Write the structure tokens for this entry.
Amino acid sequence: MAALDISGVPGSLQVKLRTRGRVPAYTLRGYKLRAIVFGDGEIPIERLEAPLPDLAPGAQTTLPITFREKAPARIQLDVLRPTGSRLTGTFGKRRTRCEESRYP
């Protein structure tokens, strides 16, 4: 994964994913986007999951994500790989960040 860009407002996001275009690169198949909405006190109050389309090297896709909660404390976005590892982004009171993780 080359980039995970998040835009919009907390109740309605646009998540743009772009795959790496150079070596090592491969088609992503069987991946999912998971969104977890947290309220005050770090309590998860909403969870959404959507399959990603197959993405060839250098390809990109944009997914609209809409939540019932319009004022979340934090939104965690995970791109779940078939291997169980993930790419995580956070959108909310803190700045958007992305980090690689080997653990689900």
